[in-house]
Amino acid sequence: MRCSINGKAIAAFATFCTVLVYLAVGAAIFQAIEESHENEQRENYEQQLHELLKGVDENFHAELKAPCHMVEVLEATPNVTNTWTFAPTVIFCLTVVTTIGYGYMYPVTDEGRGFCIFFALIGIPLFMACLAVYAQHTANFIRWVCKRLRTILGGKNEENETVQQIVTVVFCLLVILTFSAYLSYKEGWEYFDSIYFTFISFTTIGFGDLYPTSDDTLFYFLFVFFIILGLISLGTVIEAQTTNFSKFLTFISNTCECMCGKCLTVEKDTMSEVDDVN
To answer: How many angstroms separate the CA atoms of 150 and 156, rounded?
Structure first.
């Protein structure tokens, strides 16, 4: 039994490392493709700005550059307003394999778009497999917590599905509220906006109307950590609720069948009595 547990732990760790390596390699390739195009765009912009200001007094250059830059930001493709450095590109790769797709950053070259298709075709099933492995470990952890609670509270030593679902929801809420608090502190957002962004991210809806702008290493690490943890925890809750709804719909279906069957039986009995009288 001990070897089996260790083997599962090693397999889970190996799967997670494979995903991280895949994200890192993908980020390096995207960076190599898109960063050169980004640099070319910036050079063209600087050249056009230089031509525009060439006949203008140097004392007015600073005043004219500000509105020019604002127009450039409003009209530019994402490769101008977002830098394809390594860490942000890793986050971009994560949004691809998780299917969140905020839309704040995307490839604009034919090579980058072609590689994005290839990267997603392999990355999405790979990440889903990793998610399934860790979702199972999370479920096992929650069962262990419930068992410990039963031992501490002196309850019956048997599994209770309702209690497990409650613990799962509490765990998911803790993840959401913790990540939201960090985003609120780091980005200066309203707490409700942070909760909204967190939920939209964990459900892979990914509207992109809000997106954090912090760019330090610790933020990137925590962002990846909480996104993966949130997908696991909220996915477990949604799966449990899907099971509950399926049971409820099955109950309604069986009830309707029973009622219809009873009505048919009553109708047949009545017809039989009429025939007997006749």
So the answer is: 7
Tell me phi and psi for residue 115, to 5 degrees.
-65, -30
Closest alpha carbon to 162 in 235, 243, 229:
243
Exposed e or buried b for every residue in 92-127, given b needs 16+ CB within 10 A?
bbbbbbbebbbebbbbeeeebeebbeebbeebeebb
Tokens standing for residue 240: 């449990």
Residue 89 and residue 51 in contact, taking contact as beta carbons nearer than 8 Å = no
Q: In which residue are the tokens 């470990």 written?
A: 137
Q: Where are the alpha helices (DSSP H) in the chain?
A: 2-53, 61-75, 78-81, 86-97, 110-153, 161-187, 191-202, 217-277
Instruction: Return d(Cα 272, Cα 267) in angstroms, integer.
Output: 9
Q: How far is CA 194 from CA 16, 218, 224, in A?
A: 27, 18, 16
Summarised one tens digit per residue, pLDDT across range 54-102 is 666 565 555 555 555 544 543 444 444 457 889 999 999 999 999 999 9
CB 130 within 8 A of CB 19: yes
**Token pair listed for 206:** 């990914």
Distance CA 183, CA 191 (A): 8
Segment 219-270, tens digit of pLDDT: 999 999 999 999 999 888 888 788 778 888 888 888 887 776 655 554 555 5
What is d(CA 149, CA 136) in angstroms, rounded to the nearest whole number? 20
